[in-house]
């Protein structure tokens, strides 16, 4: 049951880098979610307080719907990023366990599932993040609907 700690740490380097990258991605999705939540609260407050003119209400309603959709997408992206980080941690722990218990098929299987889960979830989260940014373009159109034509150009 001998192993070299340097070998264990050396093999964990790439995984640690992936965890750091996943954490940065998670921070990005969380930050965008918080920004959208502030925008959603501001828009709904404006709508509820009846400060909006009659011409402003339809674009405001469309904006509220779009921001709500974008919030849901960013929540899903954040959850998937968290799941990806957890999957990678499981894979790392199983890899570390293999240094102690060589040829343990259960650890290999669980580690492979954790790694596959991480790859699928982080890829899906990135696609959802991209989709949210596409919807952001529609929000710009909705927000500028009540502006003069020269302001829209």
Question: Any overview of this molecule?
Answer:
- The protein has 153 residues and is mainly alpha-helical.
- The protein has one domain.
- It has 4 helices and no strands.
- It has helices at residues 5-48, 57-100, 105-143, 149-152.
- Helix 1 runs antiparallel to helix 2 (57-100).
- The model has no long low-confidence stretch (mean pLDDT 83).
Task: Give a short synopsis of this structure.
The protein has 153 residues and is mostly helical. 86% of the residues lie in helices and 0% in strands.
How would you describe the shape?
rod-shaped
Structural class: mainly alpha
Number of helices: 4
How much of the sequence is in beta strands?
under 5%
Distance between the termini: 71 Å
Largest sheet: none
Secondary structure: elements and pairs:
Layout (H helix, E strand, L loop, with lengths): L4 H44 L8 H44 L4 H39 L5 H4 L1
Helix pairs in contact: 1-2, 2-3
Overview features:
86% helix, 4 helices, rod-shaped, mainly alpha, 153 residues
């Amino acid at each position: 049951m001998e192993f070299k700690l340097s070998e264990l740490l050396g093999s964990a380097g790439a995984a640690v880098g992936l965890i750091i990258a996943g954490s940065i991605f998670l921070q990005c999705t969380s930050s965008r979610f918080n920004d959208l939540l502030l925008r959603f609260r501001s828009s709904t407050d404006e709508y509820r307080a009846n400060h909006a003119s009659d011409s402003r209400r339809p674009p405001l309603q469309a904006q509220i719907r779009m921001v709500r959709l974008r919030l849901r997408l960013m929540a899903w992206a954040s959850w998937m990023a968290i799941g990806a980080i957890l999957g990678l941690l499981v894979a790392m722990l199983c890899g570390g366990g293999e240094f102690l218990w060589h040829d343990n098929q259960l650890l290999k299987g669980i580690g492979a599932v954790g790694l596959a889960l991480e790859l699928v979830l982080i890829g899906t989260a990135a696609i959802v993040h991209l989709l949210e940014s596409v919807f952001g373009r529609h929000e710009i159109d909705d927000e500028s609907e009540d502006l003069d034509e020269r302001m829209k150009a």
